[in-house]
Every structure is written in structure tokens, then in C-alpha cells.
Amino acid sequence: MTETLPPKTPQPDPAPRGEVMIEAVTHHGMGRTADGTLVPRVLPGELVTLAADGPKIVTPSPERVAPPCRHFKSCGGCAMQHASDGFVASWKAEIVRTALRAQGIEGEIAAVLTSPPDSRRRARLAGRRTKKGALVGFHARASDTVIEVPGCRLMLPQLTGLIPALERIAALAASRKGEAGLTVTDSEAGPDLHIDTDKPLTEELRIALPEIAREAGLARLVWADEIVAELEPPVQRMGRARVVPPPGAFLQATAHGEAALLEAVREAVAGAPRIVDLFAGCGTFSLPLAETSEIHAVEGEAAMLAALDRGWRGVSGLKRVTTETRDLFRRPLLPDELARFDAAVIDPPRAGAQAQVAQLSASQINVIAMVSCSPASFARDAKALIDNGFEMGPVTVVDQFRWSPHVELATRFTRR
Ligand SMILES: C[S@@+](CC[C@H](N)C(=O)[O-])C[C@H]1O[C@@H](n2cnc3c(N)ncnc32)[C@H](O)[C@@H]1O
To answer: Residue 331: CB within 6 Å of ligand 1?
Structure first.
């Protein structure tokens, strides 16, 4: 999977009404009344009146806080800035418990680890041309409109500070009608920019863009899928290895979240001499784990594995890491292929890993570290493992997408 985004939220009912009580907050982050009306930016126990320009709070919840960002009311990037960190953490834990309960599993939550504000190292922004030039920001709540977000509290400051340069680029990449996607990723050498655009890369652009990249201090600029400028390799550190991911490659959204997931994975597979890392990406788990274990990294994208392999070869002292490009939905590793490993790490995209989990169940592997960005598909896969003799450990909820409804998690399965 590439960037993980919060699911689209259902639309609130804008009709003016009398006072209503908010009973709960859905997993999309919408308040819900007893009759099922959905209301944004409210909390359980709040009495509110509904008006066309949004809810008016009559009795606030003790969990209500002043939103840290002034764009919160209009910007679609965040859903929960009106709630205390404690409320958001227990709400996310409950999303995981509810998904597990739907599969008949009572899950224990070990912790909710939330990344700090201003820590997202990757964000997908939208750019639109305007009469004056261009603007870059996030989509407004439930809308195609792009709004500017100076002072945004999600991204690392060096990414927020890049927005004026991104606007220069958006003026070239977006058409009057269409918008350009601008995915910016922080790297050791500066920001790595990937522009998603239909506009052809003309000779003029080939000349102009490297100059803009240099002025903006970009490490790399990729237009559609073509690298137009690479001033420095956009290096990511994975354990002791230095990896240059291919354009558009998956990376965990914050360094804090990555460390939390890695810690949970490390603990789960500790002591296993040979580990298979399924859906390995560029080596987020493989390369740090290779300090102590031999790793076989399997992933659908050959370019990511090539980056992982170069990273491994560039550092001495790691155990052996082998790679295999493979579609794990269509061709999961089979029990006889899994027989040479002592433990598995599995970190699938949102769809989960139904086919691979079935083969893990049928294999001799006794220890699995599972990481997931979708509580629903995780719960389905967890049930399959539990039904086949595995026991699920406590679940660590990792919140890399703070203030959004998105939830990630990691846990350990051991064969009973
Ligand atoms: C959630 S990411 C995890 C990557 C890596 N573990 C990490 O933490 O950086 C899921 C990975 O699965 C890969 N992927 C998606 N569909 C796949 C498939 N059908 N077969 C193999 N890999 C797939 C994606 O390219 C992506 O690298």
C-alpha cells in the first residue's frame, strides 16, 4: 500500500433542529445521536443544537479541548482536534476492541502510543491553480476544495515550511480544472517530492523544475513516475542501514510510530534466528531485525526490495538478508516454503492478508508478529489464526495519524 488515508466520513445532516444529545463517536469520528444523526466535531455526552454552519455546543464534554490548529473547522485533514488526547486514545482503542468483538475476540489493549504533533514525515497535499498562481493545502472537510494550511500541526515543520515552494511547483503541475497531488516525504538529505499530475513533462519543465528543486532544498523531485531532479539521494535510515526508497514507496508516517511498531515486532520475534518478513516494503522491519536474525524479505514491488537490498549491502555486520518479489495475495508463501523460518513478520496493506494467513495457519511457524493499518481486516485475519490454534497477545495501538480516525496496531500470535 502507499499512503494510508483516513476513510471518507459520512455527511452530517445540516438541517437546523432543536437540542440533541450526542451518544457516541463513530469510527469515522462523527458524533451520533440516538436517532442516528451524524454530527461533526462533537463528543459523547454533549448537548448540541444543529445549525447549517455546524453544531453549537450547549453543554461541553469535560474531554473537549481548544483545537490546536486554526484550520480545524474547515480542513478535512483532522477530525478529532476538539477532543483531549486521552479521549482520542481510548476511542482508538475501542475501535480496535469493537473490530475484534465483531469476530468474537476479546482483545487486550497493551497501550496506545500516539505520535506527537508536528511529526508527520510524509503528507499528501493537493495543489490547485488560481488566478494569482497556485495554492497548496489539504482538502476542505468533505469537499474537493483545497484550503491553505499555514501553521498546520500535523507535519514536521520543515515540510510545512516547504509549502511556498510547493505552490510554485503546483502552478506548473496543476491544470486550471484539475489538481496535482504533492506527496512530500522528509529524508536525511531534505524533502523528497513526488508530483502526481497528468500534465506532460515538457522540455521547459525539465529545465525549470531542477532549478526550483535546488532553490527549495529538495533532495529529489519526481514528476509522475520520472525522476526529474536528484540533488542528493533521499536517504531513510532503517536500523543501521541507509535506504533510498523508490518514488512512491511506502514508509511509516512518523519516526515515532515506526519506532513503536518496530519495538512491538522486535519483542514478538525476539530470539528467532530465521525470520520471514512478509509485505516487507523497503525494509522498515527487515533491516533492524537483521542485527540479530537472518531475514527473508518478501514484497510485491521489486523496486522497494532493490532499495532494501542496496541498503543491506551498504552496511557491514548485519546478518544475511535475502529478498523475493512476489504477489502475496495471489501467491502466498506455502507451508513448505515457510518451513525454514522460526518466525514471521506480516504487515499487509488495508485489505489484510487472508491468503497468506491461511498458509501461515497451515505451516509449522509458531510465532507471528502482525502489524496492521486496518482493525477490520486485522480482526478477520486474527480470527483465522486463532481458529487454527494461535493465541493473540495484547495489542499495541499505534497512532501515527493523530487527530484522524485512522488506527494502526501490532501484536504477537503464538501457537497454543
Ligand atoms: C503497510 S505496507 C508495509 C511495508 C513495510 N512493512 C514497512 O513497514 O515499511 C504494505 C506493503 O505491502 C506491499 N504490498 C501490497 N500488496 C501486495 C501484494 N499483493 N503482495 C506483496 N506485497 C504487497 C506494499 O507494496 C507495501 O510495501
So the answer is: no
